[in-house]
Structures are given as C-alpha cells and as structure tokens.
Design goal:
mainly beta; five-stranded antiparallel beta sheet; 1 helix; 11% helix; globular
Length: 64
C-alpha cells in the first residue's frame, strides 16, 4: 500500500474533465479528498477507488 501525506501530488490513470490528471491530496483515511491542479475542483472518494485510480505519487516538497 502507498504511503501518502497531506500535500502530496498524485497522477491518476484517467484525466479530469478539465484535461488535467494531477491532484493534490487534502485528506487521507477511510476516504481521500483531493483537489485538481488544473481547475481547483475538490472531490472525495473512498480509499479503495483512490488506490485503483492513482498511477504515480509525487512527494510534497514541504515537510510537515
């Protein structure tokens, strides 16, 4: 299983309606909240769907 922190960027397999496939993780746990970097849309999905959708993880540059 992936180790994610708040502020990490993820790349999804499918792109968002705006055409961007990069997201910023805003909340972790039983469900994940993430924000599209293209249009700033925020979505909440279950952890199971999140792990299926994520293609790659880019760690955040600012340590929390």
């Amino acid at each position: 299983m992936m180790q994610l922190n708040l502020g990490d960027n993820v790349i999804t397999k499918k792109s968002h309606a705006c055409g961007c496939n990069r997201w910023v993780v805003l909340r972790t746990g039983a469900d994940y909240k993430m924000q599209c970097t293209g249009c700033q849309h925020v979505v909440t999905i279950s952890s199971q769907k999140f792990y299926k959708a994520v293609k790659d993880v880019i760690k955040s540059t600012n340590p929390n």
